[in-house]
Amino acid sequence: MDKSEYLSLIKGRMGERRYIHSVNVSESAVRLAKVYGADEEKAKIAGILHDCCKEIEKDEMLQIIADGGIILDAVEQNSSKLWHAIAGSVYIQNELGIDDEDIINSVRYHTTGRAGMSLLEKVIFTADFISAERDYPDVDVMRKKAFEDLNSAMLYALKFTIKDLSRRELPIHSNAVDCYNDILINLKKKGN
Ligand code: DGI
Ligand code: FE
Ligand code: FE
After folding, report:
1. Where do the domains of the chain lie?
2. What is the mean pLDDT of residues 135-163?
3. CATH number of 3-190
4. CB of 92 closer than 8 Å to CB of 85
5. Angle CA(99)–CA(17)–CA(102) in degrees, nearest 5?
6. pTM of the shown model
7. Binning pLDDT at 50, 70 and 90, where does residue 98 land?
8. Contact 7, 48 (CB under 8 A)
9. Residue to mutate, 111, 162, 170, ligand 1, most ligand atoms under 8 Å from C-beta
10. Which of 1, 49, 156, 182 ranks highest by number of CB atoms within 10 Å?
11. Sign of the C-alpha dihedral computed for residues 138, 176, 85 and 36 taken in this order
12. Residue range 151-172, pLDDT digits in tens
C-alpha cells in the first residue's frame, strides 16, 4: 500500500477532525525526520496510521488487542485512552501487513512513550504534540523545542502529561515514567 491508500483507509475509520490531525502529524513527523535523520518514508506512514484505531468502538479495540495476543496490565485495563495505540499497532500488522518493527513500535508507544525509544518512535511521539491543528497554551514553546532538541521536547511533553494525569487523579503508565526517567537521565549525562 502507498500513502494515498493509507490516507483513504484512515479516512473511512475516523471523523474529519481526526483525519486532519493524522495528516498533520504525518507532515510534522516528516519535517522532524528530515532534521534528525530518521527515515522520512517510515515517519510519513507511521504518522498517517498512528491513530488508526482511535475512533473505533472500545470493544473492537479490546478485541484487536486480544487477537494480537497482548495482555493488558492493570493500568492499561483502567485507561481506555491507551487502547488505541496498542490496538493500532496490531491492526497495522494484521490488517495492513506492515512488518516494519520500528513503524509498529512507533504506533504502539506513541501515547505513553517508553524507555529506550528509537529515533522514529521519538519523532512520532513528538509530532503528535506539535501537529498543525494543536492549540494548547505552550504549543509554540513545544514546537520550537521539537526542532532544536528532540529529547528536550520529549521531556517537556512528558512533564506536561505526567503532571496533567496526576492532577486529574488518573493512573500513569509505567512506560511513561520509564520514558521520562530515561530521557531525563540521558539529558543530564550530556550536561543539560
Ligand atoms: O490520540 P491523541 O489524542 O492524538 O494523543 P495521544 O495518543 O497522546 O493520547 C492522549 C491521551 O492519552 C490523553 O487523554 C492522556 C492519555 N494518556 C497518555 N499517557 C497516559 C494517558 N492516560 C493514562 N491513564 N496514563 C498514561 O500514562
Ligand atoms: Fe493517539
Ligand atoms: Fe494523535
Report:
1. 3-190
2. 96
3. 1.10.3210.10
4. no
5. 20
6. 0.97
7. very high
8. yes
9. 111
10. 49
11. positive
12. 999 999 999 999 999 999 999 9
